TrEMBL record, chain A:
SUPFAM superfamilies: P-loop containing nucleoside triphosphate hydrolases. The keyword Transport applies. InterPro entries: AAA+_ATPase, ABC_transporter-like_ATP-bd, ABC_transporter-like_CS, ABC_transporter_ATP-binding, P-loop_NTPase. It comes from the Bacteria. Pfam families: ABC_tran (PF00005). The keyword ATP-binding applies. Keywords: ATP-binding, Nucleotide-binding, Transport. This is ATP-binding cassette domain-containing protein. Residues 24-257 form the ABC transporter domain. It comes from Cytobacillus stercorigallinarum.
From TrEMBL, chain B:
Pfam families: ABC2_membrane_6 (PF06182). It comes from Cytobacillus stercorigallinarum. PANTHER family: INTEGRAL MEMBRANE TRANSPORT PROTEIN, SLR0610 PROTEIN-RELATED. This is ABC-2 family transporter protein. It comes from the Bacteria. The chain crosses the membrane at residues 28-53, 65-85, 118-136, 148-174, 195-217, 237-256. The keyword Chloroplast does not apply.
Length: 339, 268
């Protein structure tokens, strides 16, 4: 059953053209010219109850604009949105009861007050019953360790603590849908892991539908089975993550630190695409050659001091999909021998 | 009942706002001191001027102080309730305003209840002191009716000035910056009310009665209490202060909501 329905969603912004210089500024005061920015061009998708969907795209792709339309903050310029049977912008307050929202960059909590007070105020705003509030707080405290900092003012919390508090706050009123906008941004590895575990758990145990935007490929891989990839306001891909990974995620980058040597590095089926004071970045296709195959080639002529293998990042996958089109024939990466 | 719920919620949110303010004790006390000194400064300037002229129009020194005290009292209330509307543009600009739109309560109410500027209590001490002093000098006979009328007039004044703050803040929905409107509209309007309107040209008086109705904040009600003449206007026009306040504030609210609906479709 679809809990979120988005059809031909569109959002245009009119942006005033600003001319440079004093004369330009004066001109802008009298007559303003506008150009239209299509933040979201034509996006359709549905999300079923209990699904966890990664909503991915580069900066400026239209992710936040879509989320803002789903939460009722923005009115679409075209198309339809339905969240749990409600049109968000028409019935913003009713929609607010059905959704939890976390913006990774901005807190929803009362900055100057001890953290617990934010929870108590939200309890009043959302009219959460005493018993339900207590149950939720107990659960969240247990999983998220809220008691470490519950009496500390929000402004003094670390980013990790603040995010934990924010996500707990967004779930106090038991919303069936949760929007997470960059929930792990800026967090260290441990804090990220903790967030992910929590998100997974509430999705499973409470059957909460989760839509999350992120830049972190690992968030998606660990949390979602499905991803909706958008770019320039349009949907590029909607489906299983594994498919994208198999199709576009075969490129690996090997980073090696080599001891000084006069012979240049010559490789087959792999390509040095960057070099910096003894450190080499080598790109290869996992299907053509294994990492150990590349390493063997290097050791024949050079001594390796250190090495790491990097997984492809979401940005590079997106740029490849964008360049090649998802339905287009996948082109083999050009592999030059030698450097 | 929705109304009762909102009252209850208002007090809870406001109490939280006060606790937040008290986190910065030094700033809090400095604000009270700052307010007191700035008003004392204005009063001294007036005194110096009037010492030269003895009276302005038909108003003598104490009557003008009385006028001034009403303005300070209602402005004091107004700041406590609405002053943070001035920074609405900052909330919009840095995106924190969005949070008011993802909660199941009226965003105007939510924004209004977010802050409660207790520091402005300094103004009460100041204006009450003046009321007592001036009443004695002018030998005003305080009847219950008089006191009730003054009370209603102050509420009207709060709504008029608060309404203007709300309207100015709403400009931020269109222009993203509204601070300059404060200096262009609010500041001059408030300064005009420091003196009896009678000294200004007819055009200005009309403007202050029917466009930006600040005449109803202090000049008209003070004229009623002190029995002063109000040329160009009906004698009892001061009694309309509370009504003007209510109507003006309702208009302000709808302008704000109109701005909000624009914000929702532009996201600027």
């Amino acid at each position: 059953m679809a809990i979120i329905e988005v059809e031909h969603l569109m959002k245009e912004f009119k942006i005033a053209k600003r001319e440079t210089g004093f004369l330009g500024a004066m001109k802008g005061l009298v007559k303003r010219e506008f150009h239209t920015k299509h933040a979201v061009k034509d996006i359709s998708f549905t999300v079923d109850k209990g699904e966890m969907v990664g909503y991915i795209g580069p900066n400026g792709a239209g992710k936040s604009t879509t989320i803002k339309m789903l939460t009722g903050i923005l009115v679409p310029s075209g198309g339809t949105v339905k969240v749990n049977g409600i049109v968000p912008y028409e019935n913003r307050q009713a929609n607010a009861k059905n959704i939890g929202v976390v913006f990774g960059q901005r807190t929803q909590l009362w900055w100057d007050l001890p953290t617990i007070e934010s929870f108590e105020l939200l309890k009043e705003i959302y009219q959460v019953s005493h018993s339900r509030y207590k149950e939720n707080m107990d659960t969240f405290t247990e999983i998220l360790g809220l008691d470490e900092f519950i009496n500390t003012p929000v402004r003094q919390l670390s980013l990790g603590q603040r995010m934990r508090a924010d996500i707990a706050a967004s779930l106090l009123h038991d919303p069936p849908i949760l929007f997470l906008d960059e929930p792990t941004i800026g967090l260290d590895v441990v804090a990220k892991e903790r967030m992910r575990t929590f998100i997974k758990e509430i999705n499973k145990e409470r059957d909460i539908t989760v839509i999350l935007t992120t830049h972190d490929m690992e968030d998606i891989e660990q949390l979602c089975q499905r991803m909706v990839l958008i770019d320039h306001g349009q949907k590029v891909y909607d489906g299983e993550i594994a498919v994208v990974k198999n199709r576009f995620g075969k490129i690996r980058t090997l980073v090696v630190d080599l001891e000084q040597h006069s012979t240049p590095l010559t490789l087959e089926k792999a390509e040095v695409f960057k070099e910096e004071t003894g450190r080499y970045w080598i790109r290869f296709n996992r299907e053509d050659i294994s990492a150990s195959g590349v390493i063997t080639q290097i050791t024949q002529t050079h001594n390796i001091k250190d090495l790491t293998v990097e997984e492809p990042e979401i940005e590079s996958i997106i740029s490849r999909i964008y360049q090649e089109g998802f339905d287009g024939v996948e082109q083999p990466i050009p592999v030059k021998s030698g450097s | 009942m929705a109304f009762m719920r909102y009252i209850d919620l208002y007090f809870k949110l406001v109490a939280a706002g006060i606790r937040a303010q008290l986190q910065y004790r030094f700033a809090f006390f400095m604000r009270i001191v700052g307010m007191l000194t700035s008003y004392a400064g204005t009063a001294i300037t007036m005194w110096v001027m009037l010492y030269q002229f003895q009276e302005l129009g038909t108003w003598n020194f104490y009557e003008m102080l009385f006028l001034f005290a009403i303005a300070v009292l209602s402005w004091g209330f107004c700041i406590i309730l609405f002053f943070h509307f001035r920074s609405l543009d900052t909330y919009i600009l840095n995106g924190t305003f969005d949070r008011f739109l993802v909660r199941p309560i009226n965003p105007f109410f939510h924004f209004m209840a977010m802050k409660f500027d207790v520091a402005s209590f300094g103004q009460f001490i100041f204006s009450i002191f003046i009321f007592i002093w001036v009443s004695a000098e002018l030998q005003i006979h305080w009847t219950i009716a008089n006191v009730l009328f003054l009370f209603a007039a102050v509420i009207g004044g709060v709504l008029i000035q608060g309404g203007l703050l709300v309207i100015i803040s709403a400009f931020a929905f269109w222009t993203t910056k509204s601070e300059q409107f404060y200096w262009v509209v609010m500041y001059p309007a408030r300064n005009l009310t420091n003196y009896p309107l009678v000294i200004y040209p007819k055009m200005v008086q009309w403007f202050m009665a029917f466009v930006v109705p600040f005449g109803f904040v202090n000049y008209f009600p003070a004229s009623v209490i002190l029995g002063k003449e109000t040329p160009y206007f009906s004698e009892n026009i001061g009694y309309f202060s509370p009504l003007v306040g209510i109507v003006f504030f309702i208009i302000a609210y709808y302008i704000w909501m109109l701005g909000l609906s624009r914000y929702k479709s532009t996201g600027s």
